[in-house]
């Protein structure tokens, strides 16, 4: 999923989008290049090349490590067996289920994915040209990223989110900052909006959208469905193998990812949220180390970083400010805007901030939220800090090179202590 129709090709397209927007602003930096023309088909072809390189890299690792790869549809059988076609493979130690997830449509309102006018992110990655208009349903990470991409390639984008704000799982300040940024780029953002009805035509889709107590019609050449994912648990033989599901439809697993059937494990999206590639990868490492008798440490699911790779980027770790209030945790917030950061001013990427939420008494980092350029990289300073139980004082004591974006992390820590210097 990630390599072929997920993380890798979308990040390649996002970089194309970033370059397009950077070139439009080039004159400010003393570079005159004339009218910027974009070609989504060319960007798409490059993204497929990048994806193929990664896919071939994994194939090489399989061969290098003498791993047998069988291509086909598999089904589980009792006794640690997997049937593919007419062949049955028996595992001595374990069978690991890692079947991932897929995009969901909304057939109840007439929005079944038809791969032409109603598409998922899968089809969006293979379009030959950017459509003139697009409505994106769902403003989580996937919806936000594709809104960024298609807007940069000249598509008029309408972003529709049922919950009260875009990026609903992120800190409220991060969501508000992104909403303002997108509106500035003329992306129509409709939060707290629900699609009541859809009329799917041959070359356009008309949506009846209810928002702020009123109903409006949204017409688009293409509707991109980005409102959640369904896990792939059907027709796998889970019941036959004795594997139970949770009430939410995920495979039920214990601390070491073993299912209710001894010798069967599950990792990644099917094993439950967060549905992120790096979480699934860590679970895979955990299971293999456990099977090898290495006694791996328990996975800290509250310390899995979340990143949305739009521009500006959004990254977070731990609790949001609202979650701290709901849990009645005594906390202090420290914040530092990139508009006050020397490196950000130099590159012209001053949107956003670093926000650190610390425990009031001991300085423990309860959560951190970054909106801005390179947020996806900067968040790991705080991920490592939380993993090792560093306090905000220890973050600041580490000398940060100047001028760098990372100085904003240290300054946010200082701000939470009432000792900010550069603001």
Polypeptide structure, described:
The chain is an alpha/beta fold. The protein has helices at 2-5, 7-24, 40-64, 121-124, 141-152, 172-184, 238-241, 277-291, 321-326, 342-347, 375-387, 392-397, 407-416, and strands at 74-77, 81-84, 87-90, 95-97, 101-103, 118-119, 133-137, 156-161, 188-191, 193-200, 205-211, 214-220, 222-225, 229-231, 264-266, 306-308, 313-318, 331-337, 353-359, 365-372. The chain has a five-stranded parallel β-sheet. The mean pLDDT is 95.
Salient structural properties:
423 residues, globular, 13 helices, alpha/beta, five-stranded parallel sheet, 23% strand, five-stranded antiparallel sheet
Short characterization:
This protein is of the alpha/beta class.
The biggest beta sheet reads:
5 strands, parallel
Q: What gyration radius follows from the Cα positions, in whole Å?
A: 23 Å
Number of DSSP E strands: 20
* Molecular shape: globular
Mean pLDDT: 95
Topology (SSEs and partners):
Blueprint: H1 2-5, H2 7-24, H3 40-64, E1 74-77, E2 81-84, E3 87-90, E4 95-97, E5 101-103, E6 118-119, H4 121-124, E7 133-137, H5 141-152, E8 156-161, H6 172-184, E9 188-191, E10 193-200, E11 205-211, E12 214-220, E13 222-225, E14 229-231, H7 238-241, E15 264-266, H8 277-291, E16 306-308, E17 313-318, H9 321-326, E18 331-337, H10 342-347, E19 353-359, E20 365-372, H11 375-387, H12 392-397, H13 407-416
Parallel strand pairs: 4-15, 6-13, 7-8, 7-13, 8-9
Antiparallel strand pairs: 1-2, 2-3, 5-14, 10-11, 11-12, 16-17, 17-20, 18-19, 19-20
């Amino acid at each position: 999923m990630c390599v072929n129709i997920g993380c890798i090709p979308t990040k390649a397209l996002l970089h194309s989008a970033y370059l397009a927007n950077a070139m439009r602003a080039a004159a400010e930096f003393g570079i005159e290049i004339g009218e910027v023309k974009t070609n989504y088909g060319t960007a798409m072809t490059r993204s497929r090349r990048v994806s193929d390189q990664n896919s071939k890299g994994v194939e090489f690792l399989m061969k290098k490590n003498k791993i047998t790869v069988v291509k086909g549809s598999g089904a589980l059988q009792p006794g640690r067996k997997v049937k593919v076609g007419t062949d049955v493979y028996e595992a001595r130690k374990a069978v690991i289920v890692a079947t991932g997830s897929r995009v969901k449509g909304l057939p109840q309102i007439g929005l079944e994915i038809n791969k032409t006018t109603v598409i998922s992110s899968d089809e969006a990655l293979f379009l030959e040209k950017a459509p003139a208009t697009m409505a994106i349903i769902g403003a989580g990470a996937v919806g936000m990223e594709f809104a960024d991409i298609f807007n940069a390639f000249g598509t008029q984008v309408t972003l529709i989110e049922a919950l009260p704000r875009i990026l609903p799982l992120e800190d409220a300040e991060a969501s508000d900052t992104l909403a303002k940024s997108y509106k500035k780029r003329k992306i129509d953002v409709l939060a707290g909006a629900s699609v009541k009805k859809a009329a799917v035509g041959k070359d356009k889709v008309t949506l009846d959208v209810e928002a702020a107590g009123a109903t409006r019609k949204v017409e688009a050449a293409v509707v991109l469905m980005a409102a959640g994912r369904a896990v792939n648990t059907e027709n796998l033989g889970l019941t036959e193998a004795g594997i139970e599901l949770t009430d939410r439809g995920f495979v039920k697993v214990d601390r070491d990812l073993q299912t209710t059937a001894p010798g069967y494990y599950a990792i990644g999206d099917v094993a439950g949220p967060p549905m992120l590639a790096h979480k699934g990868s860590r679970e895979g490492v955990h299971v293999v180390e456990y099977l090898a008798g290495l006694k791996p440490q328990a996975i800290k699911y509250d310390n899995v970083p979340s990143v949305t790779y739009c521009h500006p980027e959004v990254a977070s770790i731990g609790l949001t400010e609202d979650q701290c209030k709901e849990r009645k945790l005594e906390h202090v917030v420290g914040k530092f805007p990139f508009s006050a950061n020397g490196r950000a001013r130099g590159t012209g990427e001053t949107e956003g901030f670093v926000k650190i939420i610390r425990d009031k008494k001991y300085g423990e980092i309860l959560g951190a939220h970054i909106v801005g350029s390179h947020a996806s990289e900067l968040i790991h300073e705080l991920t490592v800090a939380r993993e090792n139980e560093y306090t905000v004082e220890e973050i600041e004591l580490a000398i940060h090179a100047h001028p760098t974006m990372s100085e904003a992390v240290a300054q946010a820590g200082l701000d939470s202590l009432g000792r900010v210097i550069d603001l």
